[in-house]
């Protein structure tokens, strides 16, 4: 099944907003219904394929037949950009300027190498395509003629080593299928990002993904033990041991390379036994500051829950106000009856934290009881398992909610960062203020919500959700706010992305974060592995 | 205080072997007394400094005065090579072919940059020098004229952030002093490798060090949150958050670069509260295989001790036979009354495991009790805290023992590797056999001991100690055995080094492990940051 071409996920799961919510959006945020009728896929008219027949023939030979090189309009449209809100807004008005020439579907590592050779010979750029879920412009290269390299045929579980607890996965394997196949053997990967339903193993690796259970299972980059990379200059294999002192860690150089260094064709991951028990519960804190201190305490001194997150006052209120209507719980908020542009509410709702425990019954019980002592000592009040279950139930639904919001003329987008603990409060205020001020000045005071979604001993991530009215040109209207948020992130000492990645959207800020010499080192690697600049040109690194 | 110029550590701690041990070495391994008298430091005659006066003047200007550029014989000799057994054997016979032109002592990051500029201008190579404890030839560049960049003046604790639990340390800070200063604030780094007494923070980072408490505190590369690197092309700063999705992890590219990419001038590390309690104890297993399975069980399912190690049958027997005489406990073995070249003993001693727990009293008690259940279920028998205390007491003494062994004409060296759990047994046998067969064929049947010193969910390290008689030319005599062990490591799927590093000794095998494209990518970075090839030429990467 393919994802909705102009939105998120399974078309059958799309649901309109209740009229009451639409009315509130109108009254409180000034959201107006869209004046233009929605376009259908058939309304879009892609430009003709200009790649030469010889190039397409070479591609077909590389992947074992022309049935694996698709040039039909629908296939090309479905591989145009990713799933950021600007991506959706653009395609909804028929803007498919970033459309690929063709969609190429290799069946294995050697076919990927052959595709890269064919593209080098014919001057085509290559965009590796997993689930197509990038929200940072990672699928929109800055070069005219390119093909999308869709890895869906490379979707196997190649090996499972129960002694070492490792599994070898192909990059096009989607997360739910990877889980299902590991579950059959009694194991789990434990990687559950919000993109879970559609994202792929290769995409997780290429973009340094982090899942909602990262407190317990770690980030995806911490799960990866070995990688194979197909590049225009050949194959790079890395990872002979969990850890090594044999030079710089090449794995950590491939992870996060976003298709700019090569195509990841195999990922060896750490697996864990399926947990005996899972329990998720809610805790209430008077303030985001108090809750943050409690999370820090658990992250630093333990016991570490498997899931640990904390919504700020606004997100908590929204979640409590409309949990059923919008089905998102506190995960990514929604649009409820609060005034836009307001600061954090200091009312009775406080801040909701979710703690989750997965593991053996004994270990889960021990950690849960001890964590409860810590959270209580930090001012928390348990609110039972209902908020936890509600969060777990709605953990993947926020992107569907976004579609419904866009449908009624609202704007909704997310962005995220991370920093060391001592900077979290300042970073929170800086980004929130930047978003609120910019959009308010532009005439669309927003609702800005935030949660801590990932914790470490030394810091945490902040995940912001913004809902407002759409401007006249919604993409252009949003750009200054995103720009201001990015500037605020760097100024307050945060990283430009904790788990969404760089793509093209964050590239200019990433270049500043990495510094000229860091970028220079990365470009040196890129030039060596991809001397013709075929791979995702302009993604991660500037092309010039 | 400087380390012994021709051996390890504090000269006051040196102690000769008891005559009984010397006798046993003679009778069982054929060790003969050295026929030549030991040389004194004053007997060594360094070649004249050939660097031009203008170069030395430029260096003096870079570091604020000629008192910080040392060209006296003793300073140069003390910066000649590191502390591998071949290093010691060479310098003991007066071979100082790898002597630097001068020892340069910068006081800070800017002075390091100035030194690099001066060296570039005058065609001098640069070897960053921390504690001088490399055991892989990391201080012996393959280029004639070089200076040793001794970082001892850069030994400060620059910042401590109790909220984020981070500390900023300078590279020349020695580990005991770093611990002492952190301890004053109630914190610990938790990094205790065998080189602890002499090694520096910068060296730990450059060589991807791993300490004896890595099961609890992690490897040094896992403790590092930010780094500053001075290169001939300027400064690289990295690390704005504990984790990030903003591109490849540049920190993990600097870690393990062994001075070949730049000089690490600042290291931000994770710190932890000083533990309330520490308890170390012993467990007996019937066989190395059984003990390995028990360690794997704890590493994979927990609870995770802070220290977790397991000696094989031979190492256990040696440790039990002569614990007091040689002061090494089971850490690195010694030479006891066992026949050389024998296979693992299946006698009553079995295999000794050491488990250690550090933390709060409550957490330590819980982990210890549950780990005891697991170890018992895996066939282990507790042997009380005495073996644990003995191990802790002797944890840094093995290198002193080596000096004593070399003094009486024995050969003693260590090497180490790591692999995924499913390959550990084969790797163990392969390396053990390679060492035993090669040295036996050469007429010096060895005692080969091994322990697992570091465990991960997905694999472990193996640390081998070899003791035999010296050959006629001890360095040349050892070379084929080391070569055979390296070949065995690669053939059995291990990494060429788990924590000693690459240096020059492992370089040819490292090149095979990283593969041509991996090496090509590393060289691209090296060329960009160090275009003139000034930095540690031939260390980590080949020069041609």
Automatic annotation (TrEMBL), chains A, B:
Where is the FAD-binding PCMH-type domain positioned along the sequence?
96-274
Q: Which SUPFAM superfamilies match?
A: FAD-binding/transporter-associated domain-like, FAD-linked oxidases, C-terminal domain
Q: Which Pfam families match?
A: FAD-oxidase_C, FAD_binding_4
Keyword list (alphabetical) reads: FAD, Flavoprotein, Oxidoreductase
User: What InterPro entries does the entry give?
Assistant: Alkyl-DHAP_Synthase (IPR025650), FAD-bd_oxidored_4_C (IPR004113), FAD-bd_PCMH (IPR016166), FAD-bd_PCMH-like_sf (IPR036318), FAD-bd_PCMH_sub1 (IPR016167), FAD-bd_PCMH_sub2 (IPR016169), FAD-linked_Oxase-like_C (IPR016164), Oxid_FAD_bind_N (IPR006094)
- Asked if the Swiss-Prot or TrEMBL record annotates the protein with the keyword Repeat, the reply is no
- Keyword Isomerase, does the record have it? no
* Gene3D superfamilies, per database record: 3.30.300.330, 3.30.465.10, 3.30.70.3450, Uridine Diphospho-n-acetylenolpyruvylglucosamine Reductase, domain 2, Vanillyl-alcohol Oxidase, Chain A, domain 4
Q: Report which superkingdom the organism of origin falls in.
A: Bacteria
Stretches of Gly residues bias are at 330-345
Q: Which portions of the sequence form the region Disordered?
A: 324-345
The family classification in the record reads: Belongs to the FAD-binding oxidoreductase/transferase type 4 family.
Protein name per its UniProtKB record: FAD-binding oxidoreductase
**Source lineage:** Bacteria, Bacillati, Actinomycetota, Actinomycetes, Kitasatosporales
